Amino acid sequence: xxxxxxxxxxxxxxxxxxxxxxxxxxxxxxxxxxxxxxxxxxxxxxxxxxxxxxxxxxxxxxxxxxxxxxxxxxxxxxxxxxxxxxxxxxxxxxxxxxxxxxxxxxxxxxxxxxxxxxxxxxxxxxxxxxxxxxxxxxxxxxxxxxxxxxxxxxxxxxxxxxxxxxxxxxxxxxxxxxxxxxxxxxxxxxxxxxxxxxxxxxxxxxxxxxxxxxxxxxxxxxxxxxxxxxxxxxxxxxxxxxxx
Length: 244
Prior knowledge:
mainly alpha; MetI-like fold; 10 helices; 0% strand
């Protein structure tokens, strides 16, 4: 209930700020909430396929990026030799904005879902890899020695010590990267697509239909909140299991 009340309060504050900004700017490019929100209900059915496509793309990409990055980050973080080898590669590749690879991916993979999913997965991969690697390096050596003294093998060390210790940082990385993933999704769908929320927003902008454009923006915000809430739920469940 407290969480729901928090959302209601935050939404009310956003709507008030939006209304004041629209009245102050007095431009068709920023319609008022009164002119926009009723349209959201009218476009709900039309937006549903685009929302589903965008959700599918970003979730699939985050799953792929995380599945590839997490085991690699754990191994690199626990091996000084591997970290020495891979650290320079990470320092060179991580700062590069992955959106610049969109033209290359479009040439190689076409205009379908593949280049969008790969682009987002690539971004998630590096963010999760760096976070998990750093988290794995900070696992107390005493905990490793303690479980090894009980006869645990390497797999047991990762399963019972390293992975649980890194889970909070992993969830934090995913929560932060979800915003980046949606931003990249927008660019990819807007530049090279005919479906998805990004295309819907840019198509509305091209038609100078600004209320319709803001309907798409609201839908993309809902997508982000949905992902954020999923990660919060996942974190609560994982931490509860870890506590037991």
